[in-house]
What does this fold into?
Amino acid sequence: VTGMFTVLVLMAHAYPTRIPYADLFDRYKSMLPGHILGLLMRPGRGGGARLFVEQMLEVVADEERSSGREYSKGKEFALGTSKVFFRPQSVEPVDSLLAAIDGDVAKRNRVAQAIATSIIRRRRYRQQCYIRTGGRLLVILRRRQNYWKWFHQY
It folds into this structure.
């Protein structure tokens, strides 16, 4: 499976512009402070380009919604395994927001903070899922062990 079928489906749904995550990450990573880049580039894991682009697009969607325009995942862009797909003229809000960020330090800090909190929130959610799954597995194993101990007593 090369992903060509997925590309054809996305093209049929009118997502002609496709940009690799690494390109967007390289273009806009300069707006992030070093500690947030450290959150993205964890040792032992791959690069955080997809995570950064996903969070950046969420921030852009929030900014567009606050100004009264609709910009959301599925309507204006779609996320693939290695690229983000945009509808025609849907890259403009991303470029305009990030161009406005270059001049305004407060807005840059707000966007960086939003990206950092969403990354941290996602990590906490994943940790909680692992803890819940491990706890449930332990309960199941203990019940199974205790059942056989009780069964063999009589």
